[in-house]
């Protein structure tokens, strides 16, 4: 009679988690993360020689084709049935799987660096400059071509950036940056224009002015997204010029910014602004 040897004891399963180590410093690691973000967000875009960027992601564009036809069919059906043509719904293929409230923090990716510098600024001018740089640096995150869902009434959102910065969102009215020392900077985002929604190349470009107001010091800043454009056209595309002026009693230029690049300016790192 033979007996089989006892089974070998089971070896415990070991899972090893490797945490990527920052290259050099936290600042360097954060910069690398921002570069990767820019590469991700600009997938499917290319520079436009006349300014702005061109969206040429064939897969996304194909999904969005025929939207006008779908809307016209809905409109015709509602009119024929005697209903008001005010409840048209967009095809689901146009949407990304998140709401507008979730998408807004995309433009705040530089908050942990630039707003931190603004918070530690001892002069109002320095503080306003960093807030303006924070806003313009995040514009390249705002060019996505998928529509977010409209937020529901009372919706809130909270998240955390890789460095631990907390984000809490709810609709409260005027866009403003408030600091612990009581300072406050209010600002309005620039307008944008988009061509080729139905026919031709899909082009996206920021235009107009972006206004800033440091309430405590009454410093006012303006970023001109059209740069040095005139009726003759721009000497360079993607020019942004900026000016900060003192209160009305002492109107003079405190600081100016003028940037020109062959690449879209809203893709540049904050150190260039």
**Mean pLDDT value:** 73
Please report which band the strand proportion falls in: under 5%, 5-15%, 15-25%, 25-35%, 35-45% or over 45%: 15-25%
The low-confidence runs, each spanning 5 or more residues with pLDDT under 50, are 8-23, 260-273
- Strand elements, count: 14
Number of helices: 6
Structurally, the number of domains stands at 1
Order of helices and strands: HEEHHEHHHEEEEEEEEEEE
Provide a compact summary of the structure.
This protein is of the alpha+beta class and 273 residues long.
Note down, in words, how this protein is organized:
Pfam families: Oxysterol_BP. Residues 1-10 have a biased composition (Pro residues). Residues 1-22 are annotated as: Disordered. One of its GO terms (molecular function) is sterol binding. Residues 11-22 have a biased composition (Low complexity). The protein has a six-stranded antiparallel sheet, covered by helices on one side. It has a four-stranded antiparallel sheet with strand order 1-2-10-9, with no helix packed on it. It has a two-stranded parallel sheet with strand order 3-4. It has 273 residues and is α+β, with helices and mostly antiparallel strands. The protein has helices spanning 26-41, 58-64, 67-80, 100-103, 111-120, 124-137, and strands at 45-47, 53-55, 95-99, 147-149, 157-160, 166-169, 176-178, 184-187, 191-195, 202-207, 209-214, 219-224, 240-245, 253-259. Helix 5 runs antiparallel to helix 6. The protein has one domain. The model is unreliable at 8-23 and 260-273 (pLDDT under 50). The protein contains six helices and 14 strands. The N and C termini lie far apart (86 Å).
């Amino acid at each position: 009679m033979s007996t089989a040897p006892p089974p070998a004891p089971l070896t415990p399963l070991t899972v090893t988690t490797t945490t990527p180590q920052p290259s050099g410093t936290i600042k360097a690691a954060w910069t690398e993360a921002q570069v990767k973000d820019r590469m991700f967000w600009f997938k499917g875009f290319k520079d436009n020689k006349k300014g702005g960027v061109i969206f040429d992601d064939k897969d996304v564009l194909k999904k969005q084709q025929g939207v006008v036809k779908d809307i016209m069919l809905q409109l015709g059906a509602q009119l024929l049935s005697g209903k008001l043509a005010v409840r048209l719904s967009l095809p689901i293929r146009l949407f990304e799987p998140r709401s507008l409230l979730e998408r807004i923090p995309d433009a705040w990716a530089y908050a942990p660096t630039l707003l931190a510098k603004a918070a530690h600024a001892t002069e109002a001018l320095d503080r306003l400059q960093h807030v303006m740089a924070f806003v313009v640096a995040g514009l390249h995150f705002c060019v996505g071509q998928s529509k977010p869902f409209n937020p529901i009434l009372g919706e809130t959102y909270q998240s955390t950036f890789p460095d631990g910065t907390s984000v809490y969102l709810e609709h409260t009215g005027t866009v403003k940056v408030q600091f612990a020392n009581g300072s406050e900077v209010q600002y309005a985002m620039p307008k944008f224009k988009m061509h080729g929604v139905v026919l031709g190349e899909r082009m996206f470009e920021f235009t107009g002015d972006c206004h800033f107001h440091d309430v405590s010091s009454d410093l006012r800043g303006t970023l001109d997204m059209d740069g040095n454009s005139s009726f003759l056209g721009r000497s360079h595309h993607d020019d942004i010029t900026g000016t900060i002026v003192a209160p009305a009693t002492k109107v003079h230029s405190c600081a100016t910014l003028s940037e020109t690049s062959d690449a879209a300016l809203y893709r540049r790192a904050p150190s260039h602004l």
